[in-house]
Amino acid sequence: MNIEAILDQLVGWYGDGSDGAVPSADQWAHVLNRDPDQALTLINFFKFRETANYAGSSGGISGSDAFDQYAAVSVPTMQRVGGKFLLVAPFEAALIGAGEDWDLVAIGAYPNLQAFLDLYQDAAYREAFTHRTAACAAQKVLVASG
Fold first, then answer.
1. How far from chain centre, in Å, is Cα 38?
2. How many Cβ atoms sit within 10 Å of the Cβ of residue 99?
3. Closest Cα partner for 62 from 73, 70, 15?
């Protein structure tokens, strides 16, 4: 696996992460440099915009509706590449620590690095990712081993 080439490809497709909507090159590199055979889990937190923002235009739909368009492609693509969702549910509250305000939590598991990369390298997924970006006012994605 040529990590530098894959990193360049991902940053080229998704951007440099300076807007907080996609991983930065350092964040991609962290994932790319982990044990490729080790399972990984992503814990996603999403806060939706009232109105979706497509490059300065609303597209006439809510953030939640835009996210649904993303999910319509991302969920079956994730399953096709070998990933699975462990949980997709409305965010309720923080039990310990500072309070946070999210709309949705999604926990996705991948059996290995290649399954994760297969998702992000899929052309239909890349196209659908625009809806995720338009939908979200904020997002946080945590990476865990296993």
1. 19
2. 6
3. 70
Question: Rounded to 10 degrees, what is the CA torsion of 64, 139, 69, 15?
Answer: 140
Question: Count of residues for the chain?
Answer: 146
Quote the CA–CA distance of 107 and 90 in Å, as a whole number. 12
Report which residue type is found at 4: E
Note the pLDDT of residue 19. Answer: 85
Q: Which pLDDT score is estimated for 146?
A: 81
Instruction: Give the residue among 92, 94, 83 at the shortest CA–CA distance from 42.
Output: 83
Enumerate residue ranges in the chain where pLDDT < 70: 1, 56, 58-59
Per-residue pLDDT tens for 45-60? 999 999 999 986 756 8
Q: What is d(CA 48, CA 65) in angstroms, rounded to the nearest whole number?
A: 9
Do residues 70 and 131 lie in contact, with contact meaning Cβ atoms separated by under 8 Å? yes
